[in-house]
Design a protein that fits this description.
about 350 residues; alpha+beta; Dna Ligase, domain 1; 15 strands; about 35% helix; TTL/TTLL_fam; tubulin-glutamic acid ligase activity; ATP binding
Length: about 350
């Protein structure tokens, strides 16, 4: 919430009743918090994209709120901000309340952020999002707090630096193993191997022990896409959205070595499986358990019917989220203190 807007709202809430104002308690986009309920939080309503409600739109227009989108498309972000009356400015403009960017800001730009400006990345958040940095951070936490407390990754090696160690481990347990680029996404460059000779060492990669007995639904591998928001690293504040997605592979799982190159069996990324002739989409928002994308709620209901303890499962998931973020907390919090003049400027 921009400080400038907060001040405007406070003044509005205490102004004359004769004026046409938006006061406390009487607008769906404003929630008042804090001591004496004087701190406003702007609440976004997703349905406003469809309803185009002028009562929703008036908030951004009244307080002249603006945003810019840099180095990304983010059509959904643009749609929801526009529906709430935010005005889009040129990517080079410095007059904005929110910057939504597809890349990290340089330190000199972070230092220029005012109290009324927010950006959707923390400095050095690549400590979480790059696979090599995340691996190193978790290894450091294992050394500091004990392997068992932070045993949240399969056995992993960073190649080519740890190639000798990997080969030594492979000689004792042949795998299979899964190879991933250190800074990629959407399943690009990911493949399985059962021999070190199958690995290309032309770039930095991670090699992890493949989980070859995964939890299956109807014999298909799946993953869960969760939505986690961090609003502060000092103190650390984490939110987990109550809903998520389960994404399914399009070929039934088989441990046989002959299938090791079948991406549609082993990878669950939508970007990979949408290319499969067996991919099934579901366009009905009321149907949660059909096709290759389910809601997380539907997935949990299915597992509960199968006798799984879904309460314990989600407790383990929350523990995993917390430990993952804690592993990078020190580096990111230090960068925030160094480069970001206002504690509330960043979120991610």
């Amino acid at each position: 919430m921009p400080i400038v807007m907060a001040r405007d709202l406070e003044e509005t809430a205490s102004s004359s009743e004769d004026e046409e104002v938006i006061g406390q308690e009487d607008h769906p986009c404003i929630m008042w918090t804090g001591g004496c309920r004087r701190i406003p939080i702007l609440v976004f309503h997703a349905e406003a994209i469809l309803t185009k409600d002028n009562n929703i739109r008036v908030i951004g227009e009244r307080y002249h709120l603006s945003y810019k989108i840099v180095r990304t498309d983010s059509r959904l972000v643009r749609s929801i901000l526009t529906a709430h009356g935010f005005h889009e400015v040129h990517p080079s403009s410095t007059d904005y309340n929110l910057m939504w960017t597809g890349s990290h800001l340089k330190p000199f730009l972070l230092r220029t952020l005012s109290e009324a400006q927010k950006v959707n990345h923390f400095p050095r958040s690549y400590e979480l999002t790059r696979k090599d940095r995340l691996y190193k951070n978790i290894i450091r936490m294992q050394h500091t707090h004990g392997f068992k407390a932070f045993h949240i990754l399969p056995q992993t090696f960073l190649l080519p630096a740890e190639y000798a160690e990997f080969c030594n481990c492979y000689s004792k347990d042949r795998g299979p193993w899964i190879v991933k680029p250190v800074a990629s996404s959407r399943g690009r460059g990911v493949y399985l191997i059962n021999n070190p000779n199958q690995i290309s060492l032309e770039e930095n990669i991670l090699v992890s022990r493949y989980i070859n007995n995964p939890l299956l639904i109807d014999d298909f591998k799946f993953d869960v896409r969760l939505y986690v928001l961090v609003t502060s690293y000092d103190p650390l504040v984490i939110y987990l959205y109550e809903e998520g997605l389960a994404r399914f592979a399009t070929v039934r799982y088989d441990q046989g070595a002959k299938n090791i190159r079948n991406q549609f069996m082993h990878l669950t990324n939508y970007s990979v499986n949408k290319k499969s002739g067996d991919y099934v989409s579901c366009d009905d928002p009321e149907v949660e358990d059909y096709g290759n994308k389910w809601s997380m709620s539907a997935m949990l209901r299915y597992l509960k019917q199968e006798g799984r303890d879904t309460t314990a499962l989600m407790a383990h998931v929350e523990d995993l989220i917390i430990k993952t973020i804690i592993s990078a907390e020190l580096a990111i919090a230090t960068a925030c203190k160094t480069f970001v003049p206002h504690r509330s400027s960043c979120f991610e």
